[in-house]
Structure formats: structure tokens, C-alpha cells
Design goal:
- This protein is of the alpha+beta class.
- It has nine helices and eleven strands.
- It is 36% helix and 26% strand.
- A hairpin with a 2-residue loop joins strand 4 and strand 5.
- The protein is elongated.
């Protein structure tokens, strides 16, 4: 059984639904958002879980990985231990294997085998989420490469572009300055002022589909998550955009501001911790 299956604690015969269920189960244990005080080792293990899921949940990448495991047998087991295993290292290893095979075959199929060459392609976060068509020079010719919606960083596209020739294209996704991804959903941490948290208002925020105005309700709590329906990754069930509110105090906490707040609290006493004990 390949190491990616071991990381997700499933059989290599697992169905797509079983792979998804295994990821969700492990995410509840290791995801940093669920366990904010996780150790560095647990966070690194979750990253492996996430990468393993990204590969095995994609039919094309899973097929490529299964093919390599079958071809190399137990070699993966001897080259990588579970403690030191890196999915990035695995793909580097696979790329070397493909390059060696391509070099040996001089990019020509022999005995019915397929000659494979490796390429890389950098795309933006938005292009990865929504899908895109990019040009890539393969064997001296410019070819249009279709990136499916929801592509992940260091995922791989396998292209059979000519009879007996195959290209393995590793996708590198540039990070977005404020957006991140969680499955089909897009996440945004939104800092707001103390005044905006009390009075409410409208704030312009980025989405995959361009900037939109988000209504902030009055007296909102820090940590509240506002949902923009169907502003996530297009799929059978389109994802949402989850906006987490972060009330951010001013950097210059002047005495005049403190005086105003203390006076207001004195005139309007309340205890947000009344049910703590």
C-alpha cells in the first residue's frame, strides 16, 4: 500500500467517498483551526494529510500515483519512512523517475511504452480556484493547457498530447495576499475597526469573482463568520466564501480614547463574562 494511503489511514481500494470521509475525520483531529494549540509535529502531519488528500481525491493524480506505486513496488517504502516522508519529496522522486525514463527512451516510445517528460507551470490563486487556460511550450510547440477549477499547489496534470508521448505538468499556485482555501470554500480574515464593530457598515472585500461590498451588522463579535453564498470554488456543489471578523484596535491607543470608553462603560455597565462560572 502506498504511503499516501497510509497517511489517510485507508486501503488502496478506498472509494472517492471513503477518501473524502477519511480526510474529514483526520482534519477534525489535526486541523490547526480545530486545535489552535497544536504542536509543530501535528501541524506538519496535517499538511501531509492535506497533500495526500489533494492527490488521492483527484482521479488523474491518483491514477498516476497508483501506477508509480505498482511499477516501483516496495521501493517507495524503502526510500521514504513514514516519519520523514514528504509529499513534495515524493513528487520530486516521481519527476526524476519520469525524467530518467524519458532520457532512456530518448522521448520515443519503445516496446509499447509511453515516453514521459516533466514540466512546471505557475498560475495565480484565482486561476487555480476558477480554472484557466494557459500556454505551455512542449517539445518546441506552444500548447494550450486547461487547468480545471480547484487545482491545488503542486498538483499534477497528465497530458497525452501525441500517440506514445505524455507530459506531466506540475502546477505551482502563487499565494493570494488575503484569500485562502478550505476544500471548496474560500476563507478571508477581515480586520475591522472598533467603530465598525459597534456601528456596522459596508466594507469592500476581495472575492474570486472581483471585489464586493460586505454588510457588517452592528455589534458584531470578533471571530464571527459571515458567509457569502456560492462565492467559492465552482463544483457540483459550489463553495462559499467564509469571512472571519477580526476586531482590530488602533495602534495608537491614546488616553483620550480610553477616557471615552471608560466613561461609556461606567454609564452603560455590562459583563460579557457573566456566565463564565
Amino acid at each position: 500500500m502506498g504511503l499516501l494511503y497510509q497517511i489517510l489511514e485507508i486501503s488502496h481500494r478506498a472509494t472517492h467517498d471513503e477518501i473524502k470521509a477519511a480526510y474529514r475525520r483526520l482534519a477534525k483531529i489535526y486541523h490547526p483551526d480545530v486545535n489552535p494549540h497544536s504542536s509543530k509535529d501535528r501541524i506538519e502531519h496535517f499538511q501531509k494529510i492535506r497533500q495526500a488528500y489533494d492527490i488521492l481525491s483527484s482521479p488523474e493524480q491518483k491514477s498516476l500515483y497508483d501506477e508509480e506505486c505498482k511499477k516501483n513496488g516496495l521501493k517507495y517504502q524503502s526510500d521514504f519512512s513514514r516519519d520523514s516522508f514528504s509529499v513534495d519529496d515524493l513528487f520530486a522522486y516521481m519527476s526524476r523517475q519520469f525524467n530518467e525514463e524519458s532520457s532512456t527512451n530518448e522521448n520515443e516510445p519503445k516496446n509499447g511504452n509511453t515516453a514521459t517528460s516533466s514540466y512546471s507551470l505557475k498560475i495565480s490563486f484565482v486561476e487555480a480556484c476558477l480554472g484557466a487556460t494557459k500556454n505551455l511550450v512542449i517539445d518546441g510547440q506552444k500548447r494550450a493547457i486547461t487547468i480545471p477549477p480547484g487545482a491545488t499547489h503542486k498538483s499534477t496534470l497528465v497530458l497525452d498530447y501525441l500517440e506514445g508521448k505524455r507530459a506531466m505538468v506540475m502546477i505551482y499556485v502563487a499565494p493570494h495576499p488575503s484569500l485562502s482555501r478550505q476544500d471548496q470554500n474560500i476563507c478571508l480574515d477581515l480586520p475591522i475597526t472598533f467603530s465598525e464593530s459597534i456601528c456596522g457598515g459596508k466594507v469592500e472585500i476581495p472575492t474570486l469573482y472581483g471585489p464586493v461590498l460586505l454588510r457588517i451588522p452592528p455589534c458584531i463579535k470578533s471571530g464571527t463568520i459571515l458567509t457569502l453564498k456560492e462565492k467559492g470554488i465552482p463544483a457540483k456543489k459550489k463553495g462559499d466564501q467564509l469571512v472571519k471578523i477580526l476586531i482590530t484596535p488602533p495602534k495608537n491607543n491614546t488616553e483620550s480614547l480610553q477616557d471615552v470608553l471608560k466613561k461609556w462603560e461606567k454609564e452603560n455597565p455590562y459583563n460579557p463574562r457573566i456566565n463564565f462560572f
